[in-house]
Design brief:
Pfam families: DctQ. The chain is an all-alpha fold. It has 4 helices and no strands. The chain has one domain. Helix 1 runs antiparallel to helix 4.
């Protein structure tokens, strides 16, 4: 598979993750709005915070693969702005590998945590929503993020980008 084809496939995956993230954010807004409106009449939605915190946690993780593919992370280049393009590419690749490894470890731990939540049948206090699905969704998002970071690391070594 060519570099361009792999970039295209990972970008489509990242866009899909971001679209799901947007839907989760809209759902969180809808639950919050409904709870506030019902609260005005003394009948807030029971467990609304449980729903919103799970939705937001997964939504944040699902945005990160697209952020990685677009190179949209915050970069502080005060000390590195005078480096030659090849030096910047190597430094960029090293940092992306670090991100890929750290995020892969977090995905692994989330998967184990999700399995433990499923195995122990842990759920939320008010709505008895199972915790495992939030862990599993976050682990999938972090796995996609880790793959994207590893690809961008390899790509930056093969084809250095010019800083903006």
């Amino acid at each position: 598979m060519s570099l361009a084809a792999l970039r295209g496939a990972l970008t489509r995956l990242a866009v899909g993750c971001a679209l799901v993230s947007g839907m989760l954010l809209l759902a969180a807004v809808a639950v919050t709005t409904a709870s506030v409106l019902r609260g005005a009449f003394g009948r807030p939605i029971l467990g609304d915070s449980e729903i919103v915190e799970m939705l937001l946690g997964v939504a944040v993780v699902l945005c990160m693969p697209l952020c990685e593919m677009k190179g949209a992370h915050v970069v502080v280049d005060f000390f590195t702005q005078k480096l030659p393009p090849r030096g910047l590419a190597v430094l960029d690749a090293v940092m992306r590998v670090v991100v890929a490894v750290v995020v892969a470890v977090l995905a692994w731990r989330l998967a184990i945590g999700g399995y433990n939540m499923w195995d122990r049948e842990r759920d939320t206090m008010f709505l008895q929503l199972p915790f495992w699905w939030g862990y599993a969704a976050a682990a999938l998002g972090m796995t996609a993020w880790s793959l994207c970071a590893a690809f961008v690391a390899a790509e930056s070594l093969i084809r250095p980008r010019h800083p903006a």
